[in-house]
Specification:
- The structure holds two protein chains of two kinds.
- By secondary structure, chain A is an all-beta fold.
- Helix content of chain A is about 0%, strand content about 50%.
- Chain A contains no helices and twelve strands.
- In chain A, a hairpin with an 8-residue loop joins strand 10 and strand 11.
- Chain B is mainly beta.
- Helix content of chain B is about 0%, strand content about 50%.
- In chain B, the strands form two sheets. In chain B, strands 2, 4, 5, 6, 9, 10 and 11 form a seven-stranded mixed sheet that branches. In chain B, strands 1-3-8-7 form a four-stranded antiparallel sheet, with no helix packed on it.
- In chain B, strand 5 and strand 6 form a beta hairpin.
- The termini of chain B are far apart.
- Chains A and B meet through strand 5 and strand 6 of A and strand 5, strand 9 and strand 10 of B.
Chain lengths: ~120, ~120
C-alpha cells in the first residue's frame, strides 16, 4: 500500500521568512513519482513539480526548492523569502508504477499562511 | 488556451436527486480522473479512465457513476445512493500513466456540491 504523510497540518509565518513543508512517503514500488501541488483559496490544484524516484537531484525554481532524500523517504519543499501570495494548501502526492500506476495518493495537505 | 473546465462551480441539489458534474479537457490527454475532497482532507479517487469507453473504480466509487464516450469529456453523476455527497469535486487529466515521462495530472477548477 502507498501512503503519504504531511505531519504539519498548519504553518503560519511572517512575510520574508523561509518555510519548509515536510512530506514522507511509503511505497513498495522501486519506480515511483512524487509531486507537489498548490491549492489556493480558489480551489484549483496547481502542479508545482514532479520528481522521479531514479533522479535524486534536488531542484530549485525561483524561490521554491525541493529536497528529495530516498534514504529517509522524504520529499520536502522549501519556500524562500515567503510572500503573502504563497498562502495556500500544499499537497504532496505519490504515484507508483506497475498495477497502481494510475493512482495518485495524496497527503492531507499543509495549510500555509503567510502574514504581512 | 489548453486546460480543463468544470461546470458549474457551485451546485445545490435536494437530497435524493441525481446530479451530473461536467468535466471537459482540450489537452488531448487520454486519461481522466475524478477526485473528491472533504474539508481538511487530501483528495480521494472516485473513478478514472485511461481511454475512451473504458473506466475503472477508484477508492470511493460507491454512489457514483461515470461515462467516457468522448476523449474530451468525463462526466460524473452523483446518485441518490451516495450517502454524503456534499464535497468539493475535482476533475483531472494526464497522458496515459504507462507512457512514462511527463505523467503529472492537471486539475480543473472544481465543483462545490452542496446537498440540502
Amino acid at each position: 500500500a502507498q501512503k503519504v504523510t504531511q505531519a504539519q497540518t498548519e504553518i503560519s509565518v511572517v512575510e520574508k521568512e523561509d518555510v519548509t513543508l515536510d512530506c514522507v512517503y511509503e511505497t513498495r514500488d522501486t519506480t515511483y513519482y512524487l509531486f507537489w501541488y498548490k491549492q489556493p483559496p480558489s480551489g484549483e490544484l496547481v502542479f508545482l513539480i514532479r520528481r522521479n524516484s531514479f533522479d535524486e537531484q534536488n531542484e530549485i525554481s525561483g524561490r521554491y526548492s525541493w529536497n528529495f532524500q530516498k534514504s529517509t523517504s522524504s520529499f520536502n519543499f522549501t519556500i524562500t523569502a515567503s510572500q503573502v501570495v504563497d498562502s495556500a494548501v500544499y499537497f504532496c502526492a505519490l504515484r507508483g508504477s506497475g498495477g497502481s500506476n494510475y493512482k495518485l495518493t495524496f497527503g492531507k495537505g499543509t495549510l500555509l499562511t503567510v502574514n504581512p | 488556451d489548453g486546460g480543463i473546465t468544470q461546470s458549474p462551480k457551485y451546485l445545490f441539489r435536494k437530497e435524493g436527486q441525481n446530479v451530473t458534474l461536467s468535466c471537459e479537457q482540450n489537452l488531448n490527454h487520454d486519461a481522466m480522473y475524478w477526485y473528491r475532497q472533504d474539508p481538511g482532507q487530501g483528495l480521494r479517487l472516485i473513478y478514472y479512465s485511461q481511454i475512451v469507453n473504458d473506466f475503472q473504480k477508484g477508492d470511493i466509487a460507491e454512489g457514483y457513476s461515470v461515462s467516457r464516450e468522448k476523449k474530451e469529456s468525463f462526466p460524473l453523476t452523483v446518485t441518490s445512493a451516495q450517502k454524503n455527497p456534499t464535497a468539493f469535486y475535482l476533475c483531472a487529466s494526464s497522458i496515459r500513466p504507462t507512457s512514462g515521462g511527463r505523467n503529472e495530472q492537471f486539475f480543473g477548477p472544481g465543483t462545490r456540491l452542496t446537498v440540502l
